[in-house]
Specification:
two-stranded antiparallel sheet, about 10% strand, globular, 4 strands, mainly alpha, about 130 residues
């Protein structure tokens, strides 16, 4: 099962997510501005079969066109699907960027989280007056 899932992610899902990710990244000015979600459109073509899919991502349930995989629809809305076929969880790209920043700053002391948070918020345009 793990080999099949790895193949699905590496050969099908990730390549299909590249263009939607780059488009979202550009539209959001490198995740600095909120982009209106484009995942609300239930169909893309006249021949597709609509499948209801409930996804826990804190702010919506989604109906998607089976002609385009759900992870692609989610990426268009700034969300990364946690499953290649029928995701039930999606993570906001801002959360992933925060986690990436956290791991860059991660050190064996208690200031890593604070430094990562400050760096992430600074990149989002917020200024903390803690220093």
């Amino acid at each position: 099962k793990q080999e099949i899932q790895w193949w699905w992610w590496s050969q099908d899902v990730i390549p299909a997510l590249l263009n939607p990710y780059l488009q979202y990244h550009q539209a959001s000015e490198s995740l600095h501005v909120v982009v209106d979600s484009q995942v609300d459109h239930p169909t893309q073509c006249l021949t597709c079969v609509v499948h209801p899919l409930t996804i826990c991502c804190l702010f919506f349930n989604h109906i998607y066109c089976a002609c385009t995989p759900a992870p692609v629809h989610l990426m268009e809305g700034g969300l990364f699907a946690c499953s290649p076929v029928t995701p039930t969880l999606a993570v906001d790209l801002h959360v992933l960027e925060f986690m990436r920043t956290l791991f860059v700053w991660l050190t064996p002391n208690t200031t890593a989280w604070c430094e990562a948070l400050e760096s992430f918020l600074d990149a989002q345009g917020y200024q903390l007056q803690s220093k």
